[in-house]
Design a protein that fits this description.
Layout: H1 2-13, H2 16-24, H3 31-58, H4 62-73, H5 85-102, H6 106-111, H7 113-120, H8 122-139, H9 143-152, H10 159-167, H11 172-202, H12 207-238, H13 242-263, H14 267-282, H15 289-317, H16 320-325, H17 327-351, H18 361-369, H19 375-382, H20 391-420, H21 427-455, H22 460-487, H23 499-522, H24 528-547
Helix pairs in contact: 1-13, 1-15, 2-3, 3-4, 4-15, 4-20, 5-13, 5-14, 5-15, 5-19, 7-11, 8-9, 8-17, 9-11, 10-20, 11-12, 11-14, 12-13, 12-14, 13-14, 13-15, 17-18, 17-20, 19-20, 21-22, 23-24
C-alpha cells in the first residue's frame, strides 16, 4: 500500500499535461495536441531508461548521459519542446530544494555550517565578481550583462557531484559541505541576481541599501520557512495517512515558494528552512515508520524524476550550430567561472582553520572541480529581460557553458574523486559499521513494536515474543562491538566513519539531555538551581565541541 501511495502521488505530480503541457501551454481540450505530448513523454521516459542502463554499464554519470541523449534525439521527436524558466522556478526548483532539505540532518549541517556559510555567502559574491570582470574585459560586455552572467555562472549544480559520491565513498563531512552549499547557494545567487536587475531598472542602488535588502530578504525567507514548517509539523501529528502526508509536503514545498515570492522574501531560503523543519522535526515525531518510508520514497522519486526531465530538456534545448559559433566565448566563460571558483574556494576555506576544523586540501580540490553548472543557470538566462543588451547572445553563452560543464566536468569528476582517494575504509571500520547497522535497525524495529503495543494494534504476547527476537540481535551486536573496541581502542574515533560523525552524535546526545532538563524545569519536577547548574555544564560541553 505504501509503495502504491507514493507511486500514485508521483504519477499525479508528473502527469503529461502537468509537465509537458506547462512547457508548451498545451490546451487539454485539443486531443491531437495532448496525444502529441503523451507521445513525447513516452519517448523521453524510454530514452531516460535506456540512458540509465547504458550509464550503469559504461560507468558514466547519469546526468551527463541524459544531456548527450537529449542532443541526439532532438530531431527524432514528433514535436519541438524546450525549457521554460517559469516552470523551473515555480515547480522544479521548489521540488529539488525540498527533496534535498527533507533528507538533510540538521545536526550534520550545524557541524559544517561555517565552511558552508563562507562558500554560499562571500563565495558566491567573490566568484560572481571575478567572473564578471573577466567577461567584461574578455568579451567587451558592459557591466550589467557581465555581472548578471557572473551570478548565473556562480550557481553550482551538485546533482552530478552527489551522484559520484554515491558510487565512490567520501568522508561524510565533505558530502555535507557539498549538499549544504547547494541548499543556500541558490538562494544567495537569486537575491544578488535580483539586486543587479534592480540596478539595471532603476539606475542606482547604494551598497548599504543592497546589504539591507539582502538581509531582509534572507531573514524574511527564514521566518516564512519556520512558520510554514512548524505549522505543517502540527498537521503531521493529526494525520498519519501516507497519501495525505505526501500531498501535504507537496503543498508545503510549492506553497512556501509562492508565498515567499508574494511577500518579496527569499523563496529559496523559505523552502529550504521548511524542508529542514519537516525532515528533522515533523518526520521524527508521531509519524509511523511505514509513513516515513513512503514519504521519503516519494520525494526520492520526485527528485529523480525532475532531474531526469531537466537534463534531458537541457540537451534538447542546445543548438550545436550556435554552440560552435560561440565556442571561443564559451571557453572563456568556463575559464572565467573556474578562476572565480578558485579564488573563492581556496582562500575562504583556508580561513576556516582559525575558527573550525581545517578543510583538507584534497577536499578543496573536489569543491573546486565539482563546480558544475545546471538547469538553474539556464533558467536565469531565460529570465533575462529584453532590455538587457545582447540578451540572445548571453543566453547562447550560458547554454553552451552549461553543456560543456556537464559533459567535460561531469565525465572527469569521478576520475578525480577516485584519484584523490578521499576515504580510507579499513576492515575494522567496515566491521564496526555493519554492526552499527545491525544495532540501528534492530532498535528501530523495537521502537516500532513499542508504538504498536501502545496503540493497541499488537497483542502483548506477540509483542514480547517479537521484541525478544530483536533484543537478542541487539545484545549480540553490542557484545561484538565492545569486543572490537577493546581489541582496537585506538580506532574508536574512526569507527564512526570520521570525527565529524562522532562529534555530531555527541552533540545530539547533549542536546537531548538539555531538552530533558528544560522539560523537567517547565513541569517543576526539579529545582531551578540544580537545573541551571547542569545546563551550564552541558553548554560548556557543547561549546567545547564547537571549538574542537
Amino acid at each position: 500500500m505504501d509503495s502504491l501511495a507514493s507511486t500514485t502521488a508521483f504519477l499525479w505530480l508528473f502527469s503529461p499535461p502537468f509537465i509537458l503541457g506547462s512547457i508548451n501551454n498545451a490546451d487539454p481540450s485539443n486531443p491531437g495536441k495532448v496525444e502529441g505530448l503523451v507521445t513525447v513523454l513516452i519517448i523521453l521516459l524510454l530514452v531516460a531508461t535506456g540512458v540509465a542502463l547504458v550509464s550503469r554499464y559504461l560507468r558514466l554519470p547519469y546526468v551527463t548521459g541524459l544531456v548527450l541523449a537529449g542532443l541526439a534525439i532532438t530531431e527524432l521527436l514528433p514535436r519541438r519542446i524546450g525549457l521554460d524558466s517559469s516552470l523551473i522556478f515555480n515547480l522544479f526548483l521548489p521540488i529539488l530544494l525540498f527533496e534535498a532539505a527533507i533528507n538533510t540532518d540538521i545536526s550534520r549541517l550545524r557541524s559544517t555550517i561555517k565552511p558552508i556559510a563562507l562558500l554560499a555567502g562571500p563565495g558566491v559574491v567573490i566568484s560572481s565578481g571575478i567572473t564578471a570582470i573577466i567577461l567584461k574585459f574578455g568579451l567587451g560586455l558592459t557591466w550589467i550583462p557581465a555581472l548578471l552572467v557572473g551570478v548565473i555562472l556562480a550557481i553550482t549544480d551538485t546533482v552530478s557531484v552527489i551522484a559520484v559520491f554515491k558510487e565512490v565513498s567520501v568522508p561524510s563531512r565533505l558530502s555535507t559541505i557539498v549538499e549544504g552549499e547547494s541548499l543556500f547557494n541558490d538562494g544567495i545567487a537569486l537575491v544578488v541576481f535580483s539586486l543587479i536587475l534592480q540596478v539595471h531598472q532603476t539606475g542606482s542602488l547604494t551598497f548599504l541599501a543592497g546589504l539591507q535588502e539582502l538581509f531582509v530578504v534572507i531573514v524574511g525567507g527564514t521566518l516564512v520557512g519556520l512558520a510554514l514548517g512548524y505549522l505543517s509539523t502540527g498537521l503531521f501529528v493529526r494525520s498519519d495517512d501516507p497519501l495525505s502526508s505526501i500531498l501535504l509536503t507537496v503543498a508545503v514545498a510549492l506553497g512556501t515558494f509562492q508565498i515567499g515570492e508574494i511577500l518579496g522574501v527569499s523563496a529559496v531560503v523559505a523552502v529550504v528552512v521548511a524542508g529542514l523543519i519537516i525532515g528533522n522535526v515533523g518526520l521524527s515525531r508521531s509519524v509511523s515508520a511505514s509513513s516515513n518510508i513512503t514519504l521519503l520514497s516519494f520525494w526520492e522519486y520526485a527528485g529523480f524524476g525532475v532531474n531526469t526531465f531537466i537534463f534531458l530538456l537541457i540537451g534538447l534545448e542546445i543548438d550545436l550550430i550556435t554552440l560552435w559559433k560561440t565556442l571561443p566565448a564559451v571557453l572563456l566563460a568556463i575559464v572565467a567561472y573556474q578562476v572565480g571558483r578558485l579564488v573563492s574556494v581556496y582562500p575562504l576555506l583556508a580561513l576556516v582553520r582559525f575558527f573550525d576544523r581545517a578543510i583538507p586540501l584534497r577536499w578543496q580540490h573536489i569543491l573546486f572541480l565539482g563546480n558544475i553548472k545546471g538547469s538553474l543557470s539556464m533558467a536565469l538566462a531565460f529570465s533575462l529581460p529584453a532590455t538587457i543588451l545582447g540578451r540572445e547572445a548571453l543566453i547562447a553563452l550560458v547554454f553552451g557553458t552549461v553543456l560543456l560543464s556537464l559533459v567535460g566536468q561531469g565525465l572527469s569528476l569521478p576520475w578525480f574523486v577516485k584519484r584523490f582517494n578521499l576515504s580510507h575504509f579499513s576492515e575494522f571500520q567496515q566491521q564496526t559499521e555493519e554492526l552499527q547497522a545491525e544495532l540501528i535497525t534492530a532498535k528501530a524495529a523495537q521502537d516500532e513494536l513499542d508504538s504498536l503495543l501502545k496503540s493497541g494494534v499488537l497483542p502483548k504476547s506477540i509483542y514480547e515474543e517479537m521484541r525478544s527476537t530483536y533484543q537478542f540481535k541487539v545484545a549480540g551486536a553490542e557484545k561484538l562491538l565492545r569486543d572490537l573496541y577493546n581489541k582496537r581502542p585506538e580506532q574508536l574515533s574512526n569507527s564512526l566513519g570520521d570525527r565529524t560523525k562522532f562529534d555530531a552524535i555527541r552533540r545530539r546526545l547533549l542536546l537531548a539531555e538539555k531538552g530533558a532538563l528544560n522539560e523537567a524545569l517547565r513541569k517543576r519536577i526539579l529545582d531551578e538551581q540544580i537545573v541551571r547548574g547542569r545546563l551550564q555544564t552541558i553548554n560548556q560541553q557543547l561549546l567545547k565541541l564547537e571549538d574542537d
